[in-house]
Amino acid sequence: MSASVERARIADVADIGRVLELAVALRSELRDLRGGALWEVREARLEPTVDALQAFMARADAAIVVGTIDDVVVGYGSLEVETLHNSDRLGIIGDLYVEPGARDVGVGECIAELLVDRARDAGCIGIDAFALPGHREAKNFFERGGFTARALTMHKRLT
To answer: How many structural domains comprise the chain?
Structure first.
């Protein structure tokens, strides 16, 4: 039996349908976690529609990466490059999702590495990623990749 091969690559137009499925799954998974409902309507950066994905992919300051196992797309990530007030550039990982059955085999790491490489190539001084407060797996994933917390957002629910 041969070993599976995990890779990441820049998404193309043929991947839009699959990325859309994964984006919907990401929102479904995070929506019920602490902070997830507000994240979905405020911080979520990539709208899960065909038109929004096509527009995002056409941007010079953005990219969608897909992660594969044996060339089957099982995850995706998105990157935007933001220009700061001092003209420095910051990479923002908006989405990073791998199907539950394909986690813990290196696909997420491949996606994250390619997103970091793209941010570095774009001249970014750093790269940010988002994890919900109760999503320990996401926090641990990013910490294993060398990410550290640089800010905490505190929230008080009024309704």
So the answer is: 1
The CA distance from 93 to 68, in Å, is 18
The domain spanning residue 12 has which CATH number? Answer: 3.40.630.30
pTM (predicted TM-score): 0.93
Closest CA to 7 of 137, 126, 102: 102
Query: Which run of H or of E encompasses 74?
Result: strand 72-83
The 10 Å Cβ neighbour count of residue 95 is 24
Is there a domain that residue 40 lies in? yes
pLDDT at 144 over 80: yes
d(CA 115, CA 92): 9
Q: Which residue segment(s) compose the domain that 121 sits in?
A: 6-144
